[in-house]
Design brief:
By secondary structure, the protein is α/β, with parallel strands linked by helices. It has helices at residues 11-22, 35-45, 60-73, 88-97, 105-114, 138-149, 162-165, 171-178, 192-199, 216-239, 246-249, 251-265, and strands spanning 25-29, 52-56, 80-82, 99-103, 124-127, 154-159, 184-187.
Length: 266
Amino acid sequence: RCVGVMAAAADFHVRVFEDLQDEDGLAVMGKGLGLQVVIMAFVRLHCRPDCLVFLLNASPASEQAVVRQMAVEGAAVLPAVVTNLFSPAERSQLYARGGVLCITPRLLVVDMLSGRAPVSRITGVLVDRAHEVGDASNVAFIARLYRQQNREGFLKAFTEDPIVLSRGMSRCEKALKLLRLRRVSLWPRFQADVKGDLEDPATAPEVVECRLPMSERAQALQDALVECISGCLSELRRTNRSLDLTAILGPSAGARSRRAGEGGGE
């Protein structure tokens, strides 16, 4: 069932997709693991006239990337980025057209309350950057309205910022409650599937290191900084012989500072 929507994805991306497709939940991935690949798979799956899916809380860059990618792939119904530049009548036409709509939460709240957005026929809701959802968030209000009128549609949430969810009292549990979700799936770098793909020579990312030589001015600036730092270390050692700088600067720097201090004392 993933053929076509995740053709070029890594194996662990497919597992994340299948896990969320089977049951609604919050997917928490480590930074840099390609969360957008999973979101794009859900977008690709629902770019059809018989679907109405909202992508909420995505960054403007992510929204534009979704539109460009679907245009390249020739989607049946291209995603649209809905802003306040669209009139109520134009938004109603987009809702009737179907497909995937990247819309600001504030606009969707207004259209849901006014009845302009057909909540009962919404296929699903995708929430990006779910760690930002709070008590006063429009996304949380949308999830509440959505579940009150639509029990059949899906709701998938995504984030690649687990640090935020670990702060405070029950932050992750609170996010699940606000989004009307019951399940969270964790995909850190040390998870077996993720680690296996990242360490597999066939799929491992290629790392290229490029080093540029410093210009004469940059070299002169570096030499001046090193000289200033050495002078500061010498002064510190001269005023406080018992000061150990190895914990701050490392053994080699500490040894150099001691030598500098001894040389200055002579």
